[in-house]
């Protein structure tokens, strides 16, 4: 497969079209940044650019490209080792920052002849896990367990399940089918040694999950899948050099970061709407986690809007920045026309064009710098994720409760109608009960709480099937066109370590509908008393509990086992509510 021109590395093109008031403010921010010698301070890891906390300890990603190029033999050796053993699949078991970059590589590059197909599992949904199990032969699969801390619940239980499945077919050689990526000295490293894993690769302790795409967490799967890791890194080095430019007007990372930070801090344009062309359509998922996890805290943050259906220009409010990221060979006249109309309507629009698909590394580094700079402008620590950790704590408490008692705490729905139940906390229940006691009336009352500058979120803990996604995008489109607000959507639990941070820690401008369902066919987690369905239910409850504690406007709609039919009914209910 050809990925584009094979010329010497060039920089992705970058341009921005801004309304006059925003352009003036960005120009002032650029002058201030330059006068404060902030690019030099940035590269010198000056924590005072953010909150003067421990930020300097989390900037290892700034020189990761040079470090990886110095160890390129490691990646080539892994690729040769994997090819020699003839694996048909490489299944990555991860969550959040450890899984999304490999997923982008897989969707962008596809399968390479002679190398295993890269698949990524980042869901505890038992239907999803069974689907992955049906697609692979464990005897011909290499499993990559990816966890920075080594204690993250999801990768550990994926590993337990697939190690057990592999042992059934290859007996005591099961460990030879596993590699691990984890920080030095983690619990996972010890488990890998005990089980005889084929390899253990180390993350860099000074790189957090959101910024780990170019560390081993992204590049070990990249190399094992047969992609050209050296080419990716060499092309990325061009962007690294560009982002060292002391003139912020000529530094692509700083320039984008000053725009995003100023637009949010000065103009409440905090909805970063991502438009990615066909060949790089999954890139938005990676940008979502970077922006949301890094900036969404202390009531501030950039709210990423990915894969939103197109609407008329008049349906968009004045709270957005649009980022159009395109592979040069993709020709989509409708997309081009839509972006041009946004510019003509006075919306701020950023354009980034990749000449080569291996420019993904450039885009990663460009946005990492931009996100860190935006965090500086907004005034938050761009490298922690406090509300993600809070949700993990609640989930662990609930799964521990299940192991002790055999059940999760009992819940009572606010209303139950023909198998569809609505749950919420006391404060939200009071707010949505004014218009009637039916599910339809409560949904209408809930959606009527959406105001200009808000956004609407669908948090779907249901199987990640295309037919379900299509219905959820229909709901987004209905709300966008009726309420004229930005809309977000994610399948749970995979969004928890990414956008989950900004939903809970960012501005209180979200109106959420969480969707859960009964499990038609659950799956036990080996060596525990619970199932994957119980874990998913605990994650959903933990997610909702923290939303409620943060006083977010949220309800949970629980469907039965016939998810497709009941989701269609919910679609109709929401359609009627926004008419």
Residues in β-strands, percent: 15-25%
Distance between the termini: 48 Å
Q: Do you know the CATH architecture of the largest domain?
A: 3-Layer(aba) Sandwich
Biggest sheet record? 6 strands, mixed
Q: Enter the CATH topology name of the largest domain.
A: Rossmann fold
CATH superfamily membership of the largest domain: Glucose-6-phosphate isomerase like protein, domain 1
Counted beta strands: 16
CATH class descriptor name of the largest domain: Alpha Beta
Given the structure, what is the number of helices?
Answer: 21
Q: Which residue ranges are poorly predicted, with pLDDT under 50 across at least 5 consecutive positions?
A: 1-7
Helix content: 40-55%
Mean pLDDT: 95
Q: What gyration radius follows from the Cα positions, in whole Å? A: 23 Å
Strand arrangement within the widest β-sheet reads 11-12-16-15-13-14
* Domain module count: 3
Shape field? globular
Q: Would you tell me the structural class of the helices and strands?
A: alpha/beta
Task: Describe it.
With 579 residues, the protein is α/β, with parallel strands linked by helices. It folds into 3 domains: 13-52 and 246-378, Rossmann fold; 71-232, 3-Layer(aba) Sandwich (Rossmann fold); 386-577, Glucose-6-phosphate isomerase like protein, domain 1 (Rossmann fold, 3-Layer(aba) Sandwich). It has 21 helices and 16 strands. The strands form 3 sheets. A 6-stranded mixed β-sheet has the order 11-12-16-15-13-14, sandwiched between helices. The longest helix is centred in the C-terminal third of the chain and has 20 residues, at 386-405. The chain is globular. The model is unreliable at 1-7 (pLDDT under 50).
């Amino acid at each position: 497969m050809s990925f584009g021109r094979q010329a010497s590395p060039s920089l992705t093109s970058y341009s921005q079209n801004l309304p006059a008031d925003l352009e003036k403010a960005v120009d002032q921010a650029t002058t201030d940044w330059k006068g404060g010698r902030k690019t030099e301070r940035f590269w010198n890891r000056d924590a005072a650019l953010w909150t003067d906390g421990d930020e300097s300890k989390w900037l290892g990603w700034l020189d990761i490209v040079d470090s990886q190029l110095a160890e390129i033999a490691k990646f080539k050796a892994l690729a040769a080792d994997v090819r020699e053993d003839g694996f048909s699949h490489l299944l990555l078991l991860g969550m959040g920052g450890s899984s999304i970059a490999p997923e982008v590589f897989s969707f962008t590059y596809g399968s390479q002849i002679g190398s295993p197909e890269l698949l990524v599992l980042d869901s505890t949904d038992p239907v999803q896990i069974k689907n992955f199990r049906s697609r692979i032969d464990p005897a011909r699969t290499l499993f990559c367990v990816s966890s920075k801390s080594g204690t993250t619940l999801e990768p550990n239980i994926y590993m337990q399940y697939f190690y057990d499945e592999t042992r059934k077919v290859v007996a005591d050689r099961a460990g030879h089918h596993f590699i691990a990526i984890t920080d030095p000295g983690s619990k996972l490293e010890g488990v890998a040694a005990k089980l005889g894993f084929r390899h253990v690769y180390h993350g860099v302790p000074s790189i957090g999950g959101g910024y780990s795409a170019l560390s081993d967490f992204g590049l070990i799967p990249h190399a094992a899948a047969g992609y050209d890791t050296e080419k990716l890194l060499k092309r990325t080095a061009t962007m690294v050099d560009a982002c060292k430019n002391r003139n912020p007007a000529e530094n692509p990372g700083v320039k984008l970061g000053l725009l995003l930070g100023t637009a949010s801090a000065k103009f409440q344009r905090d909805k970063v709407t991502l438009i990615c062309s066909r060949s790089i359509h999954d890139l938005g998922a990676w940008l979502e986690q970077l922006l949301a996890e890094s900036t969404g805290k202390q009531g501030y943050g950039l709210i990423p809007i990915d894969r939103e259906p197109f609407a008329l220009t008049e349906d968009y409010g004045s709270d957005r920045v649009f980022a159009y990221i395109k592979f040069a060979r993709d020709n989509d006249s409708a997309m081009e026309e839509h972006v041009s109309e946004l510019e003509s309507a006075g919306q701020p629009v950023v354009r980034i064009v990749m000449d080569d698909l291996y420019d993904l590394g450039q885009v990663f580094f460009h946005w990492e710098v931009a996100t860190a700079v935006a965090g500086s402008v907004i005034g938050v620590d761009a490298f922690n994720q406090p509300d993600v950790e809070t949700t993990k704590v609640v989930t662990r408490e609930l799964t521990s409760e299940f192991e002790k008692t055999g059940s999760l705490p009992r819940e009572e729905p606010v209303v139950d109608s023909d198998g569809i139940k609505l749950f919420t906390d006391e404060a939200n229940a009071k707010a949505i009960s004014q218009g009637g006691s039916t599910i339809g009336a409560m949904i209408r009352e809930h959606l009527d709480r959406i105001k200009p500058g808000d956004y609407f979120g669908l948090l779907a803990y249901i199987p990640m099937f295309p037919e379900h996604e299509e219905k959820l995008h229909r709901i987004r489109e209905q709300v966008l066109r009726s309420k004229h607000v930005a809309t977000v959507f994610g399948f749970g639990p995979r969004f928890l370590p990414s956008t989950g941070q900004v939903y809970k820690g960012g501005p209180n401008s979200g109106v959420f509908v969480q969707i859960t369902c009964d499990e038609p066919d659950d799956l036990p987690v080996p060596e525990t008393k619970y199932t994957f369905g119980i874990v998913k239910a605990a994650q959903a409850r933990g997610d909702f509990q923290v939303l409620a504690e943060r006083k977010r406007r949220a309800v949970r709609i629980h469907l039965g086992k016939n998810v497709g039919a009941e989701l269609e009914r919910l679609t109709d209910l929401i359609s009627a509510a926004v008419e």
